[in-house]
Amino acid sequence: MIEVKGLSKRYGPKTAVDGVSFTVQPGMVTGFLGPNGAGKSTTMRMIMGLDRPTSGTATVNGKPYAAHRAPLTEVGALLEAKAIHPGRSARNHLLALAATHRIPARRVDEVIDMTGLTQVARKRAGGFSLGMGQRLGIATALLGDPRTLILDEPVNGLDPEGVLWVRNLARYLAGEGRTVFLSSHLMSEVALTADHVLVIGRGKILADAPVNTFIDAETQKTVLVRTPDATRLAELATSDGVTIASDEPGLLTVTGLDAPAIGELAAREGIVLHELTPQTSTLEAAYMALTADSVEYRTGEPGADTPAEAAAPEGANR
Ligand SMILES: Nc1ncnc2c1ncn2[C@@H]1O[C@H](COP(=O)(O)OP(=O)(O)OP(=O)(O)O)[C@@H](O)[C@H]1O
């Protein structure tokens, strides 16, 4: 379990993390989402004792990281900065780490096997592709068979097979009762992997909820209706709290009424329906709705009149 209380980090005038409190529970995968520069990596680094908080506390399995006598068996982390000697082989890197943490050498071969690195384990890590480097980072995180895993962008650089592997691994580890905390920019991936999401924007926690609760809270349910009598149905369905949009003749997107209510209204009025489809909202839509005001680095719309907004400097936010 990870417990963070009132955690803040300031870099000079910049507040990277602003008094965040949350708990990451064992037995599930928690996704950590937020726009670029929102404070995800800084938060994870403070949990791992790599950055000193300006204020607040972070504990893993009940203690600050540095207070654990055998930290690698408590927490395994994949963080962005790679601390591996480029001339060393992956196996030797893991063996050296195992030796200094009293982890048996056979565990090195286990994690090499688990992460699919067997073919390249004796090659210089300096020649590794981004994906192989990620696998080695995950192997390093798993080395101590830790109860808690912190993975910053674990699918970065992985091919589709690698992405699927990380998803299955994260779910498997959570299924064993471990705490799995991972950040990702890939919303569809987080939707498939995580049970719970924490959303951070400009250093503050914006949401802390089960994935489905978060999606329901941040998005409006819509129903797609196809009918040759669209104008009449739209007139009959319009009331307080109901909005109807029509992007093409005969097609309505209804917000504020569910599919059974629309179907029953149509039946009462003798209106023929060709399609009645509840639209499922996505994690991406919920995330976009929530973080719209928290984006630090915003790009202009393609084809918009003012393309100069791309990579706007800090402080130029709206
Ligand atoms: N060492 C540092 N010195 C100064 N500012 C920093 C430092 N590290 C991070 N920051 C700033 O703190 C803020 C949070 O950065 P952080 O890397 O935690 O965000 P993030 O959510 O991980 O972003 P990304 O998704 O782009 O990785 C950013 O504005 C960043 O520029």
From TrEMBL:
Residues 298-318 are annotated as: Disordered. Keywords: ATP-binding, Nucleotide-binding, Transport. GO terms for molecular function: ATP binding; ATP hydrolysis activity. It comes from the Bacteria. Residues 2-227 form the ABC transporter domain. Transmembrane segments: none annotated. The keyword Membrane does not apply. Belongs to the ABC transporter superfamily. This is ABC-2 type transport system ATP-binding protein.
